[in-house]
Amino acid sequence: MTVPHPDGVEALPSPDAPVADPPRAAPWHGQAPVVAVVAIGGGIGAAARYSASLLWPTGAGGFPWTTFWVNVVGCFVIGLLMVLITERRAAHRLVRPFFGTGVLGGFTTFSTYAVDSRRLMEEGHPGTALAYLAATLLAALAAVWLAVTAARLALPAGPTGTREKGKSSS
Amino acid sequence: MNWVLVIIGGMVGAPLRYLTDRAVESRHDMGFPWGTFTVNVAGSLVLGLLTGAVTAGAASSHLQLLLGTGLCGALTTYSTFSYETLRLAQSGARFHAVANAVASVTAGLGAVFAGVAAAQALWS
Predict the structure, then answer these.
(1) Contact between chains at B35 and A114 (C-beta distance less than 8 A)
(2) Which residue out of B36, B78, B84, B106 would a mutagenesis test of the A interface target, given it has the greatest number of A Cβ atoms within 10 Å?
(3) Cα gap A108→A112, rounded to integer Å
(4) Which residue in the set A31, A42, A136 is minimally distant from B14, CB to CB?
(5) In angstroms, what is the C-alpha Rg of chain B?
(6) Per-10-residue mean pLDDT for chain B, 124 residues long?
(7) Across chain A, which distance is largest between two alpha carbons, in Å?
(8) What confidence category does residue A164 fall into, taking pLDDT thresholds of 50, 70 and 90?
């Protein structure tokens, strides 16, 4: 299963894409500072998600609005971040691992989304479960698309703002 | 205490996702986000196991905060998942974008059911 690689592919490197290092090295080679900032960011993101769950608890059998908004907001912010640091500004190499992989990756969650969907089915709310599954997916994709589109319009392309700089500017 | 457990779990889960993503992507250079798919399905399986264990009375609420809210929450990600799906769609790989979204949600949900069933078989 191969994906065509048009020129546009390099424009949007994954937030979790590896920071450049020599080819054929072990996956963790030279990664200590990156792993450290990912860990710190992950702790911050998880704590922020936990505080949201304490501030806005979801009732049993109800639509899990807190996790829904945590995921949608996280998707919006990652859209802004990725355009800013891969298409507009040459960011420090630890910015993407810290904010994208660490904070936002730790803040948003897929496992709680899946577990809450199953719980709603088990508790006799299959309609709410399906609505939650679909609404989160559609709202998350709409949020990241909206953020990427808005950031490209709002942030002027600087001297390094060519899309081809994506990988190297991280 | 609760906060410490969540933060420690998050500080383990996020780098575990990063290293898993690197390890998986170094083996599959195919443009499909297998790394994120792997951590999301694996994290859903573990959280399903934990949920079943808590229901059976075999896991404490502290363990749920450490492994569930902290570790599994940070190991899995919705932001990278949706960003990579958008990236596939905008690079012309529309079929892969749809396949990634449908397969991730289906496999994640299936992993939760499998994890809960395994926990019930183990502890009840």
Answers:
(1) no
(2) B78
(3) 9
(4) A42
(5) 16
(6) 97 97 84 94 98 95 97 98 97 95 98 97 89
(7) 57
(8) very low
Reported as a single tens digit per residue, the pLDDT across A34-45 is: 999 999 999 999
**Backbone φ and ψ of A24, nearest 5°:** 70, 5
Please state the domain extents for chain A: 32-165
Return the higher-pLDDT residue of A24 and A77: A77
Q: What is the mean pLDDT of residues A57-63?
A: 88
Cross-chain residue pair A47–B10, CB shorter than 8 Å: yes
Q: Is the CB of residue B56 less than 8 Å from the CB of residue B37?
A: no
Please name the residues in contact with B64: beta carbons below 8 A apart, sequence gap of 6 or more.
B50, B54
C-alpha angle A74-B101-A128 in degrees, rounded to nearest 5: 75
pLDDT in tens, A78-88: 999 999 999 98
Whole-angstrom distance, CA of residue A121 vs CA of residue A115: 10
What's the CA gap between A150 and A79, in Å, rounded? 9
Q: What pLDDT does A119 receive?
A: 96
Of the partner residues B3, B78, B91, the one whose CB lies closest to the CB of residue A9: B91
Average predicted confidence (pLDDT) for chain A: 85
pLDDT cut 70: percent of chain A above it: 77
CA-to-CA separations, A99 to A3, A79, A105, B108, in angstroms, rounded: 28, 12, 8, 25
Average pLDDT of the residues in A80-99: 93
**Length of chain A (residues):** 170
Containing structural domain, residue B91? 2-123
SS (H, E, C) A63-113: CCHHHHHHHHHHHHHHHHHHHHHHHHCCCCCCHHHHHHHHHHHHHCCCHHH
Q: Domain count for chain B, please give it.
A: 1
Is A169 within 8 Å of A10 (Cβ atoms)?
A: no
